[in-house]
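seq as requested:
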Amino acid sequence: MTQVSRYGHMLKVSVTGMRMRVRARYRVTGSVLNDSVVGAMLGAETTLEIDSPADPAQVARVVRNAERGCFVMQALLNPIPVTGQTVLNGQPLVIE
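struct tokens:
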């Protein structure tokens, strides 16, 4: 939502109010006790409600730019490499 405010300001499109609902669907399989748990994201749905006196085409332009400029949305749409490390008591912990 911050991006909508930011890009609205940049494009000189008045946005007087916003509300967003996000619904995530996921599944967890396996067992923690058997060391086989696996989580999976099945999808996400968003609903963005905007209040604006501006022309709908201008608001659509703001939303289009906001979605393209959103790091989280782009990471979900275009998966990126993720790396991680764990440190235990100041020493690297090897997790196989």
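The beta strands are 17-29, 38-51, 87-88, 91-92.
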